[in-house]
Specification:
Helix content: 25-40%
Distance between the termini: 18 Å
Radius of gyration: 22 Å
Low-confidence stretches: none
Order of helices and strands: EEHEHHEHHEHEEEHHEHEEEEEH
Number of helices: 10
Number of strands: 14
Strand order of the largest sheet: 1-4-3-2-5-6
Shape: elongated
Length: about 325
């Protein structure tokens, strides 16, 4: 999946909605992970849009409401806005609308949210949400409220039921739990793709290069922290090319001072990645972080990790 922006518009309420996107079907939710449940909601909106010959807008919130109300909460995001925009475009949406979740939006009543934002500024014809969707000041509105208030403004609202996997509802919290439990395979099943960190490659201390394994270093920023350790990864560059690799995610216990970082090695690739945007997808968990008796022992382990990553990512395992 190329990192260049797709041919879809990113809208905010700071500018008027283009006439071509008025009377749209709006998929409304956080959609942070864009997991199976989120995909069902957006899929229903896309289906309605095609049937009713209307454009489809996926509306998301940034920052996440939890970040607004709990600014000191540990990092928990599963996707960046850029990642969501690519995922929404691939799902068939025409545009992404970003609601800036600030004090003003938090204080907006459910009634005003529907009347002033959905009906007024968006001019929506229909809205699709998950059945557990809440909105408005103090979560004063739910799916039933949205149907009732929407009807008064000519908006046909509907809900999509939860999607189950292994007998349990799919949720972002399940994805986070799998990641922290060093279980990227379950996270992949819930998301329908590997969890991936996107970021700009930073200059590091060049220790990887000294050990014969030059790394592309990316800060984790607001992303959910998976279990620290070594992963088999696939790295997508900003030119759309994909490369197998191995990555260390954690605080590098061999070196002082500890610094949390995602360090990826791209196999069979040589070039300058500094300043470029890459996306590192976690495919397999190999082992936890460890401290070794010297750099020679560390290098020997890195060689073993790389060999295992190559084997895990081999097409013969697909």
């Amino acid at each position: 999946m190329a990192l260049s922006q797709p041919a879809m518009q990113r809208l905010t309420l700071d500018s008027p909605i283009p006439d071509a996107l008025k009377q749209a079907i709006v998929a409304l939710g956080n959609f942070d992970g864009f997991h199976l449940g989120h995909q069902a909601v957006v899929g229903r909106a896309v289906s309605r849009g095609a049937h009713e010959r209307r454009p489809v807008i996926v509306a998301t919130f940034d920052p996440h409401p939890v970040r607004h109300f709990k600014p000191d909460a540990a990092p928990f995001r599963l996707t960046s806005l850029d990642q969501r925009q690519r995922l929404f475009a691939a799902a068939g949406a025409d545009a992404m609308l970003v609601f800036e979740f600030n004090a003003a939006l938090a204080a907006t009543s459910a009634e005003d949210f529907v009347a002033e934002l959905l009906a007024g500024k968006l001019g929506a014809a229909g809205v699709v949400t998950g059945e557990d969707f809440t909105f408005g000041k103090a979560r004063g509105g739910n799916a039933g409220t949205l149907q009732r208030l929407g009807a008064a403004h000519g908006i046909v609202a509907e809900t999509v039921g939860a999607v189950a996997l292994d007998g349990l509802p799919v949720s972002s919290s399940r994805v986070r739990k799998a990641l922290t439990a060093a279980d990227p395979h379950t996270a992949t099943r819930l998301l329908t793709r590997p969890f991936a960190v996107q970021g700009v490659v930073q200059h590091g201390d060049k220790r990887g290069r000294q050990l014969g394994w030059p790394t592309a270093n990316v800060e984790l920023g607001p992303y959910q922290r998976p279990a620290y350790g070594i992963y088999a990864v696939r790295v997508t560059l900003d030119d759309g090319s994909e490369h197998d690799g191995v990555a260390s995610l954690g605080v590098r216990p061999m070196f002082d001072p500890p610094k949390e970082l995602l360090e990826a090695v791209l196999f069979d690739w040589d070039g300058d990645l500094y300043g470029r945007t890459i996306e590192v997808a976690l495919h397999h968990y190999i082992r936890p972080e460890a401290k070794f008796d010297g750099l020679d022992a560390l290098k020997a382990q890195m060689d073993q990790d790389a060999a295992k990553a190559r084997a895990l990512l081999s097409p013969s395992r697909a």
